[in-house]
Amino acid sequence: MHQTTMKRIAGELGVSITTVSKVLNNHADISDATRSRVLAKVEELGYQRNAVARSLTLRRTHTLGIVIPDLMHSFFVEIIAGIEPVASVRGYGLLLCSSSEDAGKERAELEMLRGRQVDGVVLASANASGNTDVLLQLTRQGTTLVMIDRDDHPSVKCHRVLTDDERVGVLATSHLADAGRRAIAHIGGPPIVHAKRREKGWRDALKARGIKPPDEWIVRGGFMESDGYRAMKRLLTVRPKVDAVFCANDPAAIGAMKAIWEAGLRVPDDVAVVGVGDIALGDLLRVPLTTVGWSRRDQGKHAAELLLNGLEGEGDPPQRVIIPPRLIVRESSGPHR
Amino acid sequence: MHQTTMKRIAGELGVSITTVSKVLNNHADISDATRSRVLAKVEELGYQRNAVARSLTLRRTHTLGIVIPDLMHSFFVEIIAGIEPVASVRGYGLLLCSSSEDAGKERAELEMLRGRQVDGVVLASANASGNTDVLLQLTRQGTTLVMIDRDDHPSVKCHRVLTDDERVGVLATSHLADAGRRAIAHIGGPPIVHAKRREKGWRDALKARGIKPPDEWIVRGGFMESDGYRAMKRLLTVRPKVDAVFCANDPAAIGAMKAIWEAGLRVPDDVAVVGVGDIALGDLLRVPLTTVGWSRRDQGKHAAELLLNGLEGEGDPPQRVIIPPRLIVRESSGPHR
DNA sequence: TGGCTTGACTTTACCGGTAAAGCATAGTAT
DNA sequence: ATACTATGCTTTACCGGTAAAGTCAAGCCA
């Protein structure tokens, strides 16, 4: 129950606490004799430096805060799996927070991390819309911040690890066009930059092929399955018929497929579907989903490296790292008819 | 870049630091006037108590260490998902460590947690065989410990959250017997209590049906897919033929199925297979796997509650919480022939 | 021989809080 | 008028470390 401290070691050895501290910090001005006596005692008592006390004086906790919206989503866990080894070898601990997709809880978690004096925070794609002020407070306090998959909060100067959303749209749309589809609709996301860029990619890919999408080919909504379902219902009434749809994310794509099946049509025979995100289980659906994904693990790895480089060396100016997206072809975008 | 401290607040208000501290800790001996002046200043400056400094004096970090063998295994994440909400509402942070199934790294992580003065540690089913000494050091230091899915290290006095391994064996075996199987073999795990208990359940269930398993019906090995594969190869040579196999865990069961297919036989037509653990994707296999599982989330929840109750109130004596296992029937144990 | 280094520590101050004890002032009891 | 008791603060010590400055004896140079 009683902690071993430097005081105890110093006492038993008849030296000062500072001497013990110096040995453990490899200072040069300690004789070999004393050094080994101290080291032996440390070994004997199984002494471990008290990280809390060190943090207080050094003003470094060697801890990173990780804020994710949901633990049960495989891609956030993959992000953490990308962060963990990098942090671990450099001696940093990870303080894990789940915001449960709730801006209020996210705010509370960020405040908590501020109080705990974490050296850095990785904020993974949460809906932090209201929490700009807390983020600013954090950075002002000297905490390095990295945002993953978010490109808003322009006032917050921090590193960002993103994918190339326009390219996401181009990849998906070109793939559908190459597969012989002509009427390629788009189920857009909510009004956030990422969704808008995916839409732009869709437009660009069509334009490159001389296709000018009529207004009815696009329905904007949200990122949920139900949004995709509703949007597809609308798209199915368009004449001439749409024969493919690029959805802003995977849940929306799943909703779209449901609407297609409900209308008695087949995927991909009547309508091809492509999503974005490569969520787990996407290949286990009734019709495995073609999607555009990117390595979450790389995102985590880059985020951790940006953070730690900033902490250890001189802080680079805020950087944007782009993780390239890639097309994952499954059955939902198979050949026409 | 500059931290706001109580000193600053006290200075601006012309009161002592202790007064500020007392306000924030709701001490009674502060006048309403002073109290609100302090509170107003706290609000104005966006002040947050420095948790590091508090931890040092209070000798409480309000942090739990979580050690899991692998982040990418869904059940460890589920355990964390069970812990997180409990810890979060009580104001505890989670320090996440992954041992990557490596006893050396696990040891290092535990040492790290000791240095960081975490109030409690949840140790999820890692192969900590060699690390008893660190665990003892931790508990001696006053850290509460909860082990999940491990019932060894008897010298370490701590709470344990387990499942009923004998019942696991009984459930699996009875299910196979009820499905009309007569020659129910067992692929046992490594020589650890959990595997032994599952084996005992298998024996008991057979005995209850008047079946006396010959020695060739059991092959013991490890928990890996390759172990299951090798074991099944052996079992397929047994005469009279075995028509079902209960495997000590899911990976072994998957290995067993591979061996069965390789021999030109079918699952479940020729040999029925049941595993243990309900790993993710178990239902996405070529033949979805019947298995015995239990709620990892409940395990996490119970672990967190045991820990925090011990920390907040008076420490209960080490407890054993048993999470009931349940059978999950899929196709690999379907009807004979 | 006195002054100057150098090596090997020790002393002191501080990190940002909290708890216990101390200390005026005013009000109450006697 | 004297002693007692709240009330509302402040002073002091401490948590377990680290860094900067100080000490002190031995060795060196001129």
Offer a quick outline of the entry.
With 337 residues, chain A is an alpha/beta fold. Chain A is built from 12 helices and 12 strands.
Describe this entry's structure for a reader.
- The structure is a homodimer of 337-residue chains.
- In chain A, helix 5 (74-89) links the parallel strand 1 and strand 2 (93-98).
- By secondary structure, chain A is of the alpha/beta class.
- Chain A starts with 5 loop residues before the first helix and ends in a 9-residue tail after the last strand.
- The radius of gyration of chain A is 26 Å and the shape is elongated.
- In chain A, the strands form two sheets. Chain A has a six-stranded parallel sheet with strand order 2-1-3-4-5-11, with helices on both faces. Chain A has a six-stranded mixed sheet with strand order 7-6-8-9-10-12, with helices on both faces.
- Helices cover 44% and strands 16% of the residues of chain A.
- The mean pLDDT of chain A is 93.
- In chain A, helix 5 runs parallel beside helix 12 (296-312) and helix 8 runs parallel beside helix 9 (193-208).
- Chains A and B meet through helix 4, helix 5, strand 2 and helix 6 of A and helix 4, helix 5, strand 2 and helix 6 of B.
- The structure holds a DNA duplex (30 and 30 nucleotides).
How is this fold's topology laid out?
The structure is a homodimer of 337-residue chains.
Chain A (H helix, E strand, L loop, with lengths): L5 H8 L3 H8 L7 H14 L5 H8 L4 E6 L5 H16 L3 E6 L4 H13 L4 E5 L7 H9 L3 E5 L10 E5 L1 H14 L5 E5 L4 H16 L9 E3 L4 H11 L8 E4 L2 H13 L9 E5 L13 E4 L2 H17 L7 E4 L2 E3 L9
Parallel strand pairs in A: 1-2, 1-3, 3-4, 4-5, 5-11, 6-7, 6-8, 8-9, 9-10
Antiparallel strand pairs in A: 10-12
Helix pairs in contact in A: 1-2, 5-12, 6-7, 8-9, 10-11
The structure holds a DNA duplex (30 and 30 nucleotides).
